[in-house]
Amino acid sequence: MSVKDKDTLKVFAGTTGLHLANGIVKYLELQLGAGETKVFPDGELLVKLDEDVRGRDCFVVLSTCSPVNASLMELLIYIDCLRRASANRITAVIPYFGYARQDRKDEGRVPITAKLVANLITTAGAHRVMCIDLHAAQIQGFFDLPVDHLTASPVLLDHFRKELPGFVNPIVLSPDVGNAKTANMFAEHLGIDLAIIEKRRQSGTEVKVKNVIGEVKGRTVIMFDDMITTAGTVVEAAKVARERGATSVHLACTHAVMVGQAIERLAAPEITSVTVTDTIPIDNRLQPIRHKLRVLSVASMLGEAIHRIHHNQSVSALFGKSFGPAR
After folding, report:
1. Which residues are designated catalytic?
2. Does the pTM of the predicted model rise above 0.90?
3. 172-211 pLDDT, tens per residue?
4. Which residue from 114, 176, 209, 264 has the fewest beta carbons nearer than 10 Å?
5. Which CATH number applies to 153-296: 3.40.50.2020, 3.50.30.40, 3.30.830.10, 3.30.230.80?
């Protein structure tokens, strides 16, 4: 990083982005931007910058994860603060984009909250947005500004390529038909077979596995998904794989949302390991599965993307053509 970059590029961290921002500035050889978020006794937030950002290229790192509404409000206030302080360009780096599952009207009289969130971020004053593995890729189109949609797939793939020699005839298992395209991509990149779980959803949190397309007997099973929320789908799929003779089951996802009974379910003996990235802060809630949990950092990937944006270079070239269009 040049001396000029250190003067013109600023990276700030919101509450849920501090762990990633520290890794990003280490990669970029910068100092973390001097800013702080205060919480008043009534719950109101105040963001204050302790350095000059006039004319600077500013990036604020913050995942809109739990507490979702407080995190979203902090992001909006941070963007507004940078805008009023005359930052030249403001990029909202949102590794995990909350409300992404509310991307369409799937029944009458419901909102499209992902679009509302996009409008709020734009109105607050962001010039650009960066996300990782949006639950619904079409959310990029909700913004009337540039969106850099990154993927943690290379990070996960690098990890499992190193693990493959220790696996027994490994196979990628898609936990449902809707995930088959993603699972197939991982299988192709790893050079291994693909199997697919056919399931039926009983309710918003309950699923029932009906069939397995492919042979998992005597094999190491790996399942990839963009997020693990309640873990209902993947754990049921893992149990079926074990019942059908799988020697071990390894789960992997980008976003460790982990709510409800997720931790209890993932602690089940059918699950050999759980690999996640740090788009969402890893806290003490995950202590019961620490022995099988592996956390991979996306900080360097974000740092390189920020470097490229700052220098007006291609971000998509960071991933190549094999990870899908419009990223």
Report:
1. 199
2. yes
3. 999 888 889 999 999 999 999 999 988 666 665 565 667 8
4. 264
5. 3.40.50.2020
